[in-house]
Fold this sequence. Notes:
- The protein is an alpha+beta fold.
- The model is unreliable at 1-38 and 148-171 (pLDDT under 50).
- The termini are far apart.
- The chain has four helices and 16 strands.
- The strands form two sheets. An eight-stranded antiparallel β-sheet has the order 5-4-3-2-1-8-7-6. Strands 9, 10, 11, 12, 13, 14, 15 and 16 form an eight-stranded antiparallel β-sheet that branches.
Amino acid sequence: MVQMKHMLPRSRLSNYKHLIAVLAGAMALISGPLRAQEGSPEGQWLAEDIGGRGVVDRVRTTLEIAGENASGLAGCNSYHGKASIGGMAISFENVASTRVMCSRMVMAQERDFLAALATIRSWKVEGSKLLLIDDKGRVAIRLDELSTAPKADAPEGAAPPAAASSPEPPWMLPAAIERIIAGYATQCRKLGGTLSADANRPQIMAGDFDGDGKPDYVLNPQNLRCSIAATAFCGNGGCQINIAVSGSGYHDPIAVLGGQPTLSQRSDGVHVEVWVDRSHCNVADRTKACWVDYSWRDGKLQTTYQASPRSD
Length: 312
């Protein structure tokens, strides 16, 4: 990745030396005149304001521009599209994203970001900030440069960091998550059946649960249909819900028998709540329901149970 605003020194002699090095090592990445003073929109960026409304704490919305490629994490879903850059003009086209659901606040920020991205017409760099300006001349998105410090290798099977280059399209789920999904089909086959073609993928929710900036996933098989057994994945106690976090490389997901998984954005991060049997809360009152709450503090799982009045 060539980031001109960091690599061009101030003195003219250093500029010439650096220009030779850049041309020799990255000619294929340069499609126009070098901009020593203006900087470059290429690089990895973290949104700090969208439409003048700021951003939700601990919800990462990122943008990486590499040549004509634009990608990142919109908030809940990964996205990918084309960045057309000419001088100080820029626009984003053919933007596609995954289609998983997160909490209301996260989804609202994601919608605002993607809607704003479609209106961008020019760019400006001020220090470590990238300003994306819309068709009305307003700063629609303000981003700060993501740290370029080396990061520790992720565990095998982990998703790439938000806004990092990946050999796989960003809308593909991590391989470890796909293996969990494939396990549902295997479970059905062991019973002697097959999954229905129009109901062979679990409901998926995503968010950054453990606070490491990478997507984590809740897999709910409630919608799956196994031809041989209606109760292959769900029974009287609920469904076999899996919660897989990137901090463990998505291995050994949390398995909980319950229903109605919900993501809740709170001041201390994203919580995953699942309805479970009342016995977990030691209550016999049928007017109350029991919920398990999963949250992470400094990457460590915290589990609590709480009884509350039924909503049905």
